């Protein structure tokens, strides 16, 4: 994930202390009221791997799943 994030030309990140409540509430509202996909919400929040500073989007979840699969195949 770190390699992926470093390879992207992406602006400054979100301030967890300052922006977390606003991002989370906005994401919940966008998902439940107009029923937008979590990936679309993630993109509109300017995030590459997470939706709301806590939950993974499809890309982030896929990266985690790939790592878990590699680990389990090595057992």
Structure, explained:
With 75 residues, the chain is mostly helical. It has one domain. It is 61% helix and 0% strand. The protein contains four helices and no strands. It is globular and about 40 Å long. The chain starts with a helix and ends with a helix.
Task: State the main characteristics.
75 residues; single chain; 4 helices; mainly alpha
DSSP helical segment count? 4
Can you write the helix and strand succession as a string? HHHH
Stretches where pLDDT is under 50 for at least 5 consecutive residues are: none
Shape: globular
Average pLDDT over all residues: 88
What is the domain tally?
1
Helix content: 55-70%
Strand content: under 5%
- Structural class per helix/strand content? mainly alpha
Calculate the terminal CA-CA distance, rounded to whole Å. Answer: 22 Å
Task: Report the sheet with the most strands, covering strand number, pairing sense and barrel closure.
Answer: none
Radius of gyration: 14 Å
For the secondary structure, the number of strands is 0
């Amino acid at each position: 994930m770190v390699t992926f994030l470093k390879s992207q030309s992406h602006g400054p990140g979100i301030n967890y202390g300052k922006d977390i409540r606003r991002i989370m509430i906005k994401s919940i509202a966008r998902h439940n009221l107009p029923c937008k996909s979590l990936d679309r919400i993630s993109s509109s929040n300017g995030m590459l791997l997470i939706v709301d500073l806590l939950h993974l989007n499809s890309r982030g979840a896929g990266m985690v799943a790939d790592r878990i699969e590699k680990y389990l195949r090595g057992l």
